[in-house]
Amino acid sequence: MAISQKLIIRDLGVQDYAKTYQKMKDFTESRTETTVDEIWLLEHPNIFTLGRNGKKEHILDAGDIPVMQIDRGGQVTYHGKGQLIVYILIDIKRKKLGVRHLVTQMENAVIQLLNTQNIIAESKADAPGVYTQNKKIAALGLRITKGRSYHGLSLNVDMDLSPFQRINPCGYEGLEVTQCSDLGFYISVSSAGKRLLTEHLIPLLGYQSLNWN
């Protein structure tokens, strides 16, 4: 089987953001032509992250929540327990995937998952992510280096949404956010991750051999 069809999935639980960020970069910088692609499922303790071109004025009142500048695209977002994080560590050149196509498939996977619960969701051409009832439920941000991706997406599952009021989410003033539990979709973060990958994202990306760790 071609290396491009193989995938390792790591279900990591709650992980410190800074340490995971460094591990993502180390993995991406050290991988070779024969390194198997990986997707990591996890949660982070409270943190605001600001994209590489992010404007600090979109952080209205960080308070006691740490802020970290990172190298993904996009503006500011919030991560906290109860939110699913999916890090996409794949060789897009080897998979023959364009960046826009990868983003579209990530959005489509979330939309399909929500549709199974009769939640109508959509993407927006000018604002990456997934929206329902004009509220954002999933954020996307990638970094591509030497044809390889890291960072990924976050899906609000069942969390405290109040920290989003301390920022302009993704740089949009007044943008409201929502989550699965507020829409009647009651699921654990771990189960949401497994369903999102196995039922939706992995088929869209064309992997045939899965190794769960």
Chain-wise SSE layout:
Blueprint: E1 6-14, H1 17-30, E2 37-43, E3 47-50, E4 67-69, E5 76-79, E6 83-89, H2 99-115, E7 130-132, E8 135-145, E9 148-156, H3 189-205, E10 209-212
Parallel strand pairs: 1-2, 1-10, 3-4
Antiparallel strand pairs: 2-6, 3-5, 6-9, 7-8, 8-9
Give a brief rundown of this model.
The protein is of the alpha/beta class and about 210 residues long. It has helices spanning about 15-30, 100-115, 190-205, and strands at about 5-15, 35-45, 45-50, 65-70, 75-80, 85-90, 130, 135-145, 150-155, 210.
Structure description:
The chain has 213 residues and is an alpha/beta fold. It has a single domain, classed as BirA Bifunctional Protein, domain 2. 23% of the residues lie in helices and 29% in strands. It is built from three helices and ten strands. Strand 7 and strand 8 form a beta hairpin. The longest helix is centred in the middle third of the chain and has 17 residues, at 99-115. The model has no long low-confidence stretch (mean pLDDT 96).
The SSE order reads: EHEEEEEHEEEHE
CATH topology term: BirA Bifunctional Protein, domain 2
Q: Count helical runs.
A: 3
Q: How big is the Rg?
A: 16 Å
Question: What structural category arises from helix and sheet content?
Answer: alpha/beta
Indicate how many domains the architecture comprises.
1
CATH architecture: 2-Layer Sandwich
Main sheet: strand order: 7-8-9-6-2-1-10
Q: Looking at this structure, what is the CATH superfamily? A: Bira Bifunctional Protein, Domain 2
Specify the biggest β-sheet.
Answer: 7 strands, mixed
- Roughly how many Å apart are the termini? 20 Å
* Helical content (DSSP H or I, runs of 4+): 10-25%
| CATH top level label | Alpha Beta
- Which term fits the overall shape? globular
Q: Segments where pLDDT lies below 50 for 5+ residues?
A: none
